[in-house]
Task: inverse folding
């Protein structure tokens, strides 16, 4: 692997010098390098600005937007932590709700999807092809169009402003995609291992639970990582189903802490603190599991 | 209202029961000796798979199939959320055809989807071709360009509201600093620029996504092809456009369709940045649906919007699925 990539690098260097007029080639390379660096700044500066601004006082934000904070000022974080503003709850509450919804959704989603994905990959039963087609069709449904019936159904079941209701909805939204990816994974899983377990007297479920799941830990973890970013960020259903602030999730906290016109611009800082708090978990996940994420996204796109 | 939904509900309920009972009943009924062994065999080979599928199917029936059907039904009714639903036939759809705000929202959605797709895929492709040449720091670029993709749309939208802010926002501060005061506009408050200003944001956020996918495709090109091209003495320009581009074109096509589908569903971004204002100049189908439903309580009318949105996105996604298939993957 390593030597292969080194070979390629040499190869690329060879190619670069071998052909075309060297001056034009070098100029083009220079231009590309500059363009790349400029775009890099364009991409990353707003993120730095976000974190930088959250550490400044309100007057600093307005007078010197580019400067680093004169002193690291965690005042904004304190302000959102205690819950500033007329009807804003402390951010810990939103954070707790988001964590609860995300954990519940991922646990349900992975359990439900790995069972179904396994059945689609291994099962030969009447309707297996049709079931798989159905999952594909479900993937094509834009979930936004479900909102009105879902709202009234949750209302009737008493699941509005309920973290469980939101988690069930999110699980459903994730099921088609995750089931199909799990199926694709289980297709590449060695059947021999399962057959051996079955000969030893394991039931179907026993095989699944004792053999397949332990060996597939990595794949299942990857599914969790792929799904965590949209579950954590989902706004539409949270906005409609969670109108009491005790039950709201982090995206709604970002909106709740938006500066209010009547209070002037002295409330800019807290929103930045709320935004950083909302973004940090995903940034952390990204840096920890960067390989799995980019691989999962690539897979999802070329599926 | 109660009667209308109750009948749909009970129909749905019985379907669920059937779905659940058929795999369960052979198991729970006391089996006779010979019949029993046959049943047990059937159960082991086929029946148990239905039980594996049951939780997923149940969720999809309750939280996807039923709401979808109810949306369709509701689009033929007039309903304020309380009281009885009143059947009005195709009235809602006829009114949609005459509603210039609906056409405005549809137009904005299409413009948004097309420009965002061209922008992200175009920039992403260029980035991928440059980075794939293993330029200095390509690892850092790869990680950095994908970082904004991981941020919540809500965070990104709120951040860009601050960047576009008229008095002290980053953009206008920069413009004023370099002497371009005339260009320091109220970006999100002006009917002429608001949509363009909104469209820039997802291009900024998502360019890294096509980049990662295209990069994977470019790196998947077998080395022999590069070697053959080198022996033939191609220039770098020819290599980029005559060798690499045709080979990754299927991937670029599929990512483009995916990006269009994804962009047609836009809601979060517009909602946080402008809520469709000023003067509905940034309203998209998602925000139009939300406002008709949850702000003016015209649930039947909003459902008609949902049906139109469903048809557009579903058709596109279905076509896309016919083009691309799920295959076995490894982690």
Result:
């Amino acid at each position: 692997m390593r030597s292969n990539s080194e070979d390629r690098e040499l190869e690329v260097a060879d190619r670069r010098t071998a052909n075309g007029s060297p001056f034009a080639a070098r100029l083009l390379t220079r231009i590309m390098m500059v363009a790349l660096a400029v775009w890099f700044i364009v991409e990353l500066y707003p993120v730095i600005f976000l974190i930088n601004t959250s550490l400044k006082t309100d007057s600093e934000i307005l007078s010197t937007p580019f400067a680093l904070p004169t002193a690291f000022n965690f005042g904004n974080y304190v302000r959102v932590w205690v819950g500033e503003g007329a009807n804003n709850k402390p951010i810990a509450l939103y954070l707790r709700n988001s964590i609860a919804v995300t954990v519940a959704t991922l646990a349900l989603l992975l359990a439900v999807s790995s069972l179904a994905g396994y059945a689609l990959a291994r099962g030969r039963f009447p309707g297996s092809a049709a079931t798989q087609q159905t999952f594909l069709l479900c993937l094509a449904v834009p979930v936004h169009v479900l909102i009105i019936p879902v709202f009234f159904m949750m209302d009737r079941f008493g699941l509005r402003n309920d973290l469980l209701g939101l988690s069930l909805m999110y699980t459903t939204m994730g099921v088609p995609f995750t089931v199909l990816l799990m199926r694709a994974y289980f297709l590449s899983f060695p059947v021999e291992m399962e057959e051996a377990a079955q000969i030893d007297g394991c039931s179907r479920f026993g095989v699944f639970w004792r053999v397949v799941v332990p060996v597939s830990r990595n794949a299942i973890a990857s599914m969790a990582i792929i799904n965590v970013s949209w579950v954590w960020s989902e706004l539409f259903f949270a906005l409609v189903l969670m109108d009491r602030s005790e039950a709201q999730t982090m995206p709604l906290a970002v909106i709740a802490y938006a500066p209010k016109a009547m209070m002037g611009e002295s409330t800019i800082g807290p929103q930045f603190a709320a935004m950083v708090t909302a973004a940090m978990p995903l940034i952390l996940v990204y840096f920890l599991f960067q390989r799995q994420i980019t691989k999962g996204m690539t897979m999802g796109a070329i599926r | 209202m109660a009667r209308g939904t109750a009948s749909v509900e009970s129909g749905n309920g019985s379907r669920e029961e059937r779905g659940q009972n058929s795999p369960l009943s052979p198991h729970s009924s006391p089996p006779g000796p010979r019949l029993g062994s046959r049943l047990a065999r059937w159960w082991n080979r086929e029946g148990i798979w239905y039980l594996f599928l049951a939780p997923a199917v149940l969720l999809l029936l309750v939280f996807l199939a039923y709401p979808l059907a109810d949306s369709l039904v509701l689009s033929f009714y007039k309903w304020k959320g309380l009281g009885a639903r009143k059947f009005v036939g195709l009235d809602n759809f006829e009114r949609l055809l005459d509603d210039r705000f609906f056409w405005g929202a549809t137009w904005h959605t299409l413009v948004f989807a097309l420009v965002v797709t061209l922008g992200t895929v175009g920039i992403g492709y260029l980035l991928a071709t440059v980075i794939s040449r293993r330029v200095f720091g390509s690892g850092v670029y790869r990680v950095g360009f994908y970082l904004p993709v991981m941020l919540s749309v809500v965070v990104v939208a709120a951040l860009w509201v601050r960047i576009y802010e008229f008095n002290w926002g980053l953009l206008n501060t920069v413009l004023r600093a370099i002497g371009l005061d005339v260009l320091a506009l109220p970006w999100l408050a002006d009917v002429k620029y608001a949509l363009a200003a909104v469209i820039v944001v997802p291009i900024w956020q998502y360019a890294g996504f096509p980049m990662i996918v295209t990069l994977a495709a470019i790196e998947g090109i077998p080395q022999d092809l590069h070697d053959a091209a080198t022996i033939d003495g191609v220039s770098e320009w020819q290599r980029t456009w005559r060798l690499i581009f045709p080979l990754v074109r299927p991937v670029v096509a599929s990512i483009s369709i995916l990006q269009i589908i994804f962009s047609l569903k836009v809601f979060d971004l517009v909602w946080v940045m402008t809520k469709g204002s000023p003067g509905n100049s940034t309203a998209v189908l998602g925000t139009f649906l939300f406002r008709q439903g949850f702000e003016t309580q015209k649930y039947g009318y909003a459902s008609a919007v949902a049906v139109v949105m469903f048809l557009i996105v579903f058709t596109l996604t279905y076509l896309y699925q016919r083009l691309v298939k799920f295959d076995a993957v490894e982690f």
